[in-house]
Amino acid sequence: MIPDKFRVLGPDGNGGTILDARSPYTYMERSIYQKVSEAFESQMGRYARAPDISVLGSCFQLIPNEVSLYYPPLTLMFEGGAKMELSWIHYLLLDDRSNSVYLSFITDNVGGVVLNVGLSGGHR
């Protein structure tokens, strides 16, 4: 669950959530990122780990010529009961050259959440 302190702007102007159309990644506070990446990694168990690239740490090698790819569903749950259900296109980056998939969430160890432009599609 994402606590309100990472969703709501505080009286001092810190915290909150930012929608950044320039970023290909969603930045998450470290404790939230760790929970999301651990859950993602546990559901991707049928795929071998791929080498991490740049800031992306949850990387998996897809099975060549696999007809039906499995991407786990992802729902961000916020304090107060709000839910944001995401399809794979909103949280994965695919690399056709290496046949790999990468979780597009990263952490920079600062408080707050920055949602990339991909997460804005279809969500209000």
From TrEMBL:
InterPro entries in the record: Peptidase_aspartic_dom_sf (IPR021109), TAXi_C (IPR032799)
Pfam families tied to this protein: TAXi_C
Domain Xylanase inhibitor C-terminal: 10-88
Highest taxon of source: Eukaryota
Protein name per Swiss-Prot or TrEMBL: Xylanase inhibitor C-terminal domain-containing protein
Species annotation: Quercus lobata (Valley oak)
